[in-house]
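note to self — DONT lose this again. spent like an hour looking for the file last time. sequence + predicted structure for the chain T wanted, 554 res
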Amino acid sequence: MQLRLAAVILLLASPAAAQAPTVSSTEIDAHKLEQTVRTLASDQFEGRAPGTVGEERTIGYLIGRLQALGLEPGGENGTWTQRVPLLHTQLGEAATLAFEHDRKTRALSFPRDIYVSTLQPNDVARIDGAPLVFVGYGVSAPERGWDDFKDADLAGKVAVFLVNDPDFHAAEGEPVAGTFGGRTMTYYGRWTYKFEEAARRGAVGALIVHETAGAGYGWNVVESPGGENYDVVREPEDVTSLALQGWISGDTARLLFAEAGFDLAELSTAARRKDFEPVDLATTFTAAFPVEHEVVQSQNVLARITGTKRPDETVIYGAHWDAYGKGEPDAEGRIYRAGANDDALGVAALFEIARAFEVAPPPERSVVFAFWTAEERGLLGSEYYAANPVYPIETTVANLGVDILQTAGRAKDVILVGKGQGTLEDDLARFANQQGRTVSEESLPERGLFYRADHFSFAKRGVPVLLMMGIAGASDLVDGGKAAGQAWVDDYTGRCYHAACDAWSEDWNLTGAVQDIALFRDIGAELANSESWPGWKDGSEFKATRQASEAARN
């Protein structure tokens, strides 16, 4: 192992500070990061899938490490954990799957033509001849003066959506251009929002027309779960109305619209106008899939340092402990998709930040270190916590999330995910400047990475957030610049992301990760010893939600 992996960010401290170190004077130790990643990504933990022996071993390991660091239990009823019951569903072979128009039936192939799954705990996922209604981008955004639904009745119907935002494909000069951030995806562009909106309106199904540019990934990614899905266990009245939700391939969608007498391209253009109205496709959808379903008991792990002056105000650091478990052997015979970077390295980062806080004088606000389950199944551990918080959401100061760090060495910059959302991005720039670094924006904002990590469960409830994610853009590396940074991103995302080769490698250079972890350590330390509250910027879709709870902070 080269000495570069032992490099640290070291701030000079006075003799007094050496006796009582501040948070920022504590080194981030690359060797400790390596040890944690090597352990969690080892075969002993079997890929850390929720509800498995791998989870049991992971939870025990996390608790043991947190106890050794001297932290307090931060979970339910004085324990280290929060129980997270998960619904796991798996579709079998379809008994029927077809569109019907003008008494002509078109059989569909799963998953070639259409990909669906279910979040209902039923033995059969069934839709019987439900009318298809095209709702454009399916956006209801009163703060932007936009409503694609125009009071259309979707009860008992299947909503058909376009992916991404109404301005994603807008040409310069179109009235819609810039209304939803242009190429930068808003939450309205996410598939999760579209499914949620369809359910709010009583639809029995929701289908999104796939296109690679708007989705940010190809059809191979859409179909890869193979009919499997997860959700948190919900009360009967809160279970989605959608019997099936998923995607239609672009070719299948164009054929569907043509047989109904419409041109998909023309309707897609029409959907970029405020006066767009839903279109009845005069076509019905019928499907029946057998469903295997079970409840999987999983856990978040929570540790705490209680604040000395304002203990009810909480700064939360978060990373997810889960990965993908066991899969088919890869070319090197590896069967566990153990997520060494995604997100064992994030877990290691939290341990190092916690170590820094623990040896420093106690913070004025409480600091919580949260290790989420089921991120890879749809941000479910953090979602469950945010819906059932151990510490009040209204007085949660911020959530700082770590999910994938670059392992290619020191960088001249740090990547910002979600530009223009919150004031924490200004803090990121300020602390990066103190490190002699700049801030670079994520390179593909249309992929909506801001909405695809655990911090988002807090954001949509109004909590200010900041995400450290190394694959959001090409870092300007000290050795090799942006070209070397892009080469690392391309290699990781193209070869190892969610694959068995996301494993510890002797080629890792953690000096850049150390920079980023130290940066997050310092941002959180300032928040934990401050009376100020970060917020959302004008234009953010989360600002109004936070403002609604302002009285609790006053």
